[in-house]
Amino acid sequence: MTGRPSMDTRFVHAGSDPRQQHGYVNPPVHRASTVLYENVAALDASQADPLKRRMPVYGRFGTPTGRAFETALTDLEGGHAAVATCSGLAAITTAILSFVRAGDHILVSDSVYLPTRKFCNSLADLGVETEYYDPRTDKSIEDLIRPTTRLVCLESPGSTTFEVQDVPAVTSVCRNHDVVTLIDNTWATPVFHRPLELGADVVVHSATKYLTGHADSILGAIVCSEETYPAVRATAIRLGQCAGADDVYLGLRGLRTLGVRMREHHHQAVGLASWLREQEGVRAVLHPALPGDPGHELWCRDFTGAAGLFGLELAPGPGKPAVDALLGELRLFGLGHSYGGYESLIVPADPVTHRLPGTWTGRGPLLRVHAGFEALDDLKEDLARGLATLSAHTRA
Questions:
Q1: Which of 153, 281, 360, 389 lies 20 to 30 Å from 75, alpha-carbon distance?
Q2: Is 246 an active-site residue?
């Protein structure tokens, strides 16, 4: 083969070398804590700089299974190196703590994942000031940067309300001011979005979601540029941050089918979202792949596809009992948090409780929908039954 393999080929082979695995296709699961050394010289060598180690040291510093997952994701994101963590939130918090100190100021998109917001609010206890900014901000973010600004945290599309950020505009400004940019790429994955190529310094994933893809693992990952990796790796070590062997194995397994699964999620979600736009009782569908969505132009420029997660804003009027009746009528959409698995999910969402004034202008009840792999017509029928129940309760 000449040249670099395509993404689909790399999903299948990244992080795996059967020649070093006794011919087996998949790397083995290394459940390990203690590592034994042949002699004192080897033991002494194990105490070298963790960034320069080329040998197993102790399970908390990583196993061959974990390194295979980190190597694969690094390749797919186009980064320098990666760190696996025990959860997506752990990836976010570890990455943020790698770059801030008392007296620093950070800028965080107002549309971020709610647990990220709660963590950033808690940074005040460490002397770090968090300022939230409108996710529609572009190069004008320069007006918010101070001499003490160390980090800008992006999420595109944003959690729950799905605003698409102008990542190249923000990262170019931050680079001019020596401000690190961190972005959550859980929604799009490297299949559809490659933020490091758009100027970001650090990419975080809740690998629990699409990367693993089967709702059976809790896992996070941080993919770094060469400049940011030392700080992230050192922070992960200081925090005792590591991922379990079985979870990284499941993450590695999920990568093998990620391209195929994400294309199917795109097909399912766009089909369902387009249909929902035409249904009675629906005020808006929040999905950037739909023409007319406020983020559609940026999505077309920076993304090559869309995930299965989107927002459904109902028409104003129905109260909680009516919305609860809609949800109670569904048979295929499970009431459950998380997303990214093969199953369809739906949960109520209320961004008003934690957003800046004016950045969320919805007027009706909001639902977060994840389109899984059930037959599309069956999913439409399920939601149609729920919407009919909503309408009946609203008229009563």
A1: 153
A2: no
